[in-house]
Amino acid sequence: MSGLIAVAIIVLVIGAVILGAVAGGQSNVSIKLGTNVPGEDCTALCNQWDARRQEKCAVQAAVDAAQRRVDNFLKELAASLAVATAFGAAAAVALTIPPFGWIVAIGMAAVAAAALLASTFIAGEVAGARGVLDSAERDASNARVNETEARRLLTDGCPDANECLGRQSPC
Question: What is the C-alpha to C-alpha distance for residues 9 and 73, in angstroms, rounded to an integer?
C-alpha cells in the first residue's frame, strides 16, 4: 500500500512539472524575420533597412515580455515555497500541543503539501517560460544581425544614404 502511495505521489509531482512546463512554454508571439536583398535602388534599400529595424524592435519587445513572464513565475515560485515552509513549520509546532495538536498539524501539513505541489507546477512554468525567453533572445540576435546587414547594404549601395539613416528609430 505504501508503495502505491509513493508511486502516486511521484506521478503527481512529475505530472505537475510537465503540465507547468507546457503551460509556461506557451507563447503567442511569432515574429517572422525578413531577409535582405542587395540592390541598387536606394528607396528599396532604405525601406528594407526600416523593415529590419521594425523587426528588431518587435523581437526586442517579445524578449522583454518573455523576461517579465519568467520574473513573474519566479516570484510566484518564491511565494508558494514560503507558504509551504510556513505551514510545514506550523504543523511541526502544532504537534507539540497536547492533546489534540496532531489534528491541527494534519490540516497544516495538507496545506504545506498543496503548496509544494503548486511549487512543482510553477517550477515547470518557469522552465517553459525560460525556453520561450531563450527562443526570443535567439530571434533578437538574428534580428540585430539582419538590421546591421541591411544598414551595410544601404550605406554601400547608396551614395546619399544619410537622409535614410537620419530617420528616427521605430523603437
Answer: 23
